[in-house]
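Review box. Two proteins, two foldings.
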Amino acid sequence: MNRDERRYIANLIDKFGADVLISMIPAPTHHPVAVAVARVNVSETVEECRLCPLGSTATCHVPAEWPGRRHRAPARFAVLGEAPGPEEDARGRPFVGRAGQLLRGALSKGSVNSDDVVYLNTVSCFPHEQEVSPRGKVRKVIRQPTDAEMLACRRNFLAQLDAANVRYVLICGSTALKAWRKDLRITQCQGKLGVMLNKWFVYPVLHPAAILRGIETVSEWERRIWRFIEIVEGDEGTTALETKCSKFGECGERFWMYDKDGLPWCEGHWVEGMDGHNRSVSWWLREMAKSDQMEMELGEEEEG
């Protein structure tokens, strides 16, 4: 930089201030300032959203909770929940009720600082029905978000995931799983690494509220979460993308999800066996055996 250029910049600073000059310099996409600006902007969009009636009936909108004092801190991964509950609706923060505390505790046991995680929901407002007591008191009763509410909020939660600037997402619960694919079931997918929209590695587990209801033991659920943390730390998603579908060497399509035996499958073959089966090599072997048996029986009938 020569003397004239330095003088020109000095005059700009004197006239407009250093902050204005800095704002004129385009920041890299993953620069902390650019990340913080994106997070603030998307949070404001969520708080102003009126795309469905929930935006008008909820106490407050519940945007994503970002790490760092000024939203600049990098996140290790994101946690995607279903929707805010009564406690979240009152405080404007995700995962702060009983279920949220259980999840944060499990992450803490796995040596994950809560400040290193982005928490968000597929629906950013409290889905509820109004119930009137015999004394005339109106209270909000939580319910599952409708498909229309999830569709209206889809743009918001995807924008928040983009702003999170993460590669791994812990999906909590069947409703959050629908944001990935509506035809997937949490009982089939929990504890399995998959790929969402060719952008994020996702790992579904039961919602912590289901654990509070005793659907699964806390220890078993925590082990799945700790396994997810190992996957993130080892960047096992990158390794998975280098694998191909393992349907007996016939396919060769890119990885989409692991089965219960830990083998990779493409999306087409994974979905092909959706009818109540937890896809695995043993399942395919059984299906092939059935097919061979049917052909043998048909051959015997023709000979007879």
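Next protein.
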Amino acid sequence: MSSHTNSHCIQSIPASIFALTISGTLAYGAACVVNPSTTPPALDPALRRTVVVTAMTDASVFSAADFSLGRTLGNIIKTAPGMVDTQAERIALLTGLVRSFRATNHVNPDSQVTFPLPPRLAEAALDPVALLDPANPNGMKVVGLFNRYDLAPADFKTCGEHRIVYAKNSSNQLDRFLLIFEAALDNPRPDLGAEGCRPIAQFWDSLKTKTGSDLATSLSKFYYDGLAPGIEPVVHFTNYGMPFGQVRGNLFKQQPWQLREWRISLSADGAPAFVPVTVKTNPLHSLYAAPTIGENPGIAALRQQFQAEFVGSRIAELVAVDQGGIANPEPQADLLFQLGAAFPNRFNGFESTSQNNPPHPNENPREIATQDLRNKITQRLSQTGIGSACQLTQEHILNRAGALSCAGCHQLNAGQPVAPGVNWPESLQFVHIDEAGKLSNALELFFLPARQQNLARHLQATPASPPSPANTLSAARGVRQKVLTLNSDQSRLTAINSLSEMERLVQAARSAEQATPGAFISIRRPH
């Protein structure tokens, strides 16, 4: 097997170089992932603020400025065309999300296959009025603000995601409910590419010198008002799914613990509305498993496609970090941050369950994969040479695939081996930030340092050339133009037809975005 002399330039290597050669062997040698001899240090408080601000470390921020769920919903409402923010509108918007827990199935928009969905009656009984009151025993409180600039696409059509996490005032382990608003902030100058996003990167970097009310004021302006003319606020109705961005929920009002996803769309009367969508990088668990009696024939057909693509394409992506020269092993942190697999959305389900509670089926790929799939994974590892070079097994590959899912990263694959002697880092038992704002070891020791380093390197880099004119129009702006053409005087039928066209544009943009390489990692993952 050949040796590659530039084994540590992973962050600048596109996914395409990891393709298999025609002969079926890896085009590059293996740089096996190893566990570092010492535990990596956590970020110091100043640098930490450039990627996360939490209720545990910066409580004064959340007492000095309003980051409440009510304000966030209010900003989403008032930034929608023709809408006025009122308490009634906030309740109506949140009620739509709560009612979505009654559903028993959804149709995947890409495969057009109906996927089953267990109803969540305990969450469906939540009172939106109580949730909007942080002082209520059942109210939602803000626990963290996250900088996910690292999720920017390579073309910088957006400047990554900027998140707010809310947690319900919980009385016990069976009374937990968290929402995370993940805004994809549009590039204010898409004609400049990465340079158009530089003000957003500079803003987060500037927080290392701020504390107290100064920090609170800066963050409040960024999230709700916008940094400057031409730079919209993070909390804007288009940034949560029109077309990019989303809202995710971590649910434990009833067992099993489950994660779900929504995006903001518009109803026929022009009001913002939560729409359930697939949970990204979360293939329907039954696609790994054997067929079941009475299952949807569409799922049976998808299973064959999924398993063939898993062996033919996903394995190469899952071992992409194990490349370079054998004399230069890659550290554990590289694998944990760079790991990705481009699971097409047509395979994604509408929930990710991180608790194995019968009668709900087990969703851990390592435990449910068919023997035939396991054998084909082993065979593929042997054919490429990466299996023997790095002692990788089908268990490692299935654990890596599982760790990319919400359930796997939050619980199922925590502490499980993803390479010899290397385990996926631990969560906080189903969450990565809890009701007090405490963060998991996975965040503190691995993901936050990697995000901070990428932010710093990006700001130090020589400005890149602007993109070609064909790539300068932001997809989000195209969708917005469609939104602005919706006339409140239209007939209901005309409005519905206009919304249908807008939804088609949104789905096309989101599908294209999922196939776009990242600016910092080749295959981005949502968590």
